[in-house]
Here is the input.
Amino acid sequence: MYGLELEDREIPKLAQDIHAFTLGKSNSGVNVHKLAKKLGGQSVRLFERLNSNIPESTSEDDEADRFPAVFDGDVARHMKSIEGIATDIACATSDSPIHNRKKDMRSKALWRLGSVGERVSGLRRQSTNICWLENRLEGEIESQALCSIPKDLDTRLYRDLWSSGIPIVLTSGTLSASSDFTRAKETLGLNHLQDYKLFSTTMPSPFDYKNNSMLYISQNTPFPDNKDKRYIAAIADEIERLVIASHGHAAVLFTSYNAMGQVHAILKKRGLPFPIFRLERGSTNAIDLFKKSDNGILLASGALWEGIDIPGDALSMLIIVKLPFAVPDPIGDYERSLYDDMATFKNRVIIPDMQVKLKQGDGRLIRSEHDTGVCAILDIRASESGAYRNCVLAALPERQVTSDYKAVSDFYSNKKSAAYFNVGEKGEHA
Here is the structure.
């Protein structure tokens, strides 16, 4: 087992299921219902304590989904109690009277109890693991999970997979950063292989980016700061100019839901002649509405950075608000401890990870041989005098680069048909 996780809703739900199929007492007189209630209570108190231990400096970051899991005496006690109670319930329910037609439910519950015990036992070994709390959202249901991975994951992957001598092919559109596989090799443990056993290659995109796409990099925004009202206003101004040039048909990628909400509120007040949609956490409904609108504006974070396919004219302007540097989290903090200085960590980890994420975001724009569009980056750090301009250009397919609105407008005039500009207005959606 490499990665382990325990979700906050998992054990209380298991406790409810145990109540549903048992008749209360086991043959040995153990009160299974009381044990199940105690098990659920220990889970609740475990996550309450873990949340109370989150440092304020990290809990206030609106871009963060992962937080340090600080194991103190109370956390250790709750986890040990969960492990012990799960074992007691498994023993008591294995021969306890059950309701008719619920043997399958008992079998599944016993398996789940065993799984909970094993994972809690593994999670308790925090000295050899990187542990964190992770916030999640599925639809409208919020949850939290205690997660961990071994600190020597790369070594384990090498031992269990790459050293076996079995030929393995790894392929992806975003394995490399600027055609360099160093970061992927180190993360996956491939760097432990002898050079002659590992072959890597990169292939250019099959799409004609030079003729069908343009890269706009803004020179007009302040340094990114979501708490700075001037920055948020400048972002909204740039988005407004760009979506007017593209006649809608735009997706705006944020790294922060808070910043997305602020910009959305500003754009709604400006009466743009295009429907505006906002993709919330754990939802995909806005994507379908955006596709049907033909000329809408979709504000998004999270899911839209990768794996979403919107071919054709519906998405012809992709705006990346901020370079997608990873938010500090326990995994990054551990990796930082492996390097002697920040500069090396930045060049070996932070920048390659940003380049891969940026390439994934940019990949939302051109999805077929016939697609045409502009990718706009509003982060001043990618501008002509910006510290990361060369890193940005190296990560993305080669194409015309501009900071001129007129060049963007002319691109659409030259590449799009009259029908593209004559899409009717369809109202606004939140």
Summary: The first strand starts at residue 4 and ends at 7. Residues 153-197 form one domain. The chain has three domains: 4-149, 153-197, 209-421. The CA atoms of residues 25 and 416 lie 73 Å apart.
